[in-house]
Amino acid sequence: MKRLYYIFLVMVLAILPLGGCSTQNQATEVVSISQEFPMETSNSELSESEVEGITSTVLDNQIITTESEEEVISNSSAIAILNDAIDNINAATNEVIDALQYWNDNDFNTAEDILSYELMWTDIMLELTQLANEFSESQPSEDYQSAWATIHDNILDGAMALVECSSLDADNDGTITGSEAKSQLELGSSEYVIYMDSALTNIAALTLAITEDSQQTSVSKSISTSQPTSVPFTNKYGTRTTICAHAGCTNYIASSGDTNCCTVHSNKCAECGCYIDEDALFCIDCIVEALGQ
Description:
The chain is mainly α and 293 residues long. It has 9 helices and 4 strands.
């Protein structure tokens, strides 16, 4: 389903007209916005330099990656961030499609109109940059950090690709022709598609890897905690399931020593300390050793 956004985006690009400036612009291509309505007129308080200044100020002040102390997060938190990233990328892609469609559907008759349209793209860039910063501020365990960094770079590159769409005056000559604007929109949005497709592919792969590793770890822990530690059974008077010889006792006999009783009803050899019958004082081995001396 997520790839459908990009298919639709390509379709929008395919039908993108040469300009959204005016009907005359679309027909002639050579009539610039500034020729139809000078950026510095009595009807507009914004000059060309002011428009560029506002746009660059927004970019300089907001399109940045933050340098913050990284927090190592759990696998479950990493998956939550990855899932949120998918939702945010899809939302941004919808906004890209809407912005392209807005260009198709509207005429732009003042400098303010153009600035407002360019700032639509800047807003999308800011959203994506904020998303990239979330990956900078948190880090998964070491095994996943390389893939995590790649996703961060994919998202940030996608955001910066939209710089083309937020600055329709490609050659900075103060005029924007229909073909010039179309070229900027195609360049920025097509690069955006490439980077976001890579981001979604890498997110899916990393999510799968973390999920599988977490499941394997969970199974291993379950096995290790469910199996009791094996104690060697060396008592020659029975097996692990031999019942204690003490009247009325239902415990199993001690696992070691020379006894047919459980550890509760056995004595301990006065010489070596091993378990012996409840009415004995020494184990067989110690008696034999003493006789040999």
